[in-house]
Here is the input.
Amino acid sequence: MKVSIKYCGMWNYLPNASSLEGELISRYDNIDVILIEGSGGIFDVYFNDKLIFSKKILKRFPSKGEIIDLINEK
Here is the structure.
């Protein structure tokens, strides 16, 4: 299972990305989480290369447990 988190370095979204990474690693044994620095206020989460969350679309960060719920739905 692979999760990629693309976050905005300019707006310092790294703490949000790192927090989500920790949440995912503590929940799943077989997960590979990749943090990718971007720009433009991006905070996108991809599960097995498919976009499952976008801050740009939803105009907010994911709530605690939201990404886990989205992964479990897949």
Observations:
- Strands lie at 2-8, 32-38, 43-47, 50-54.
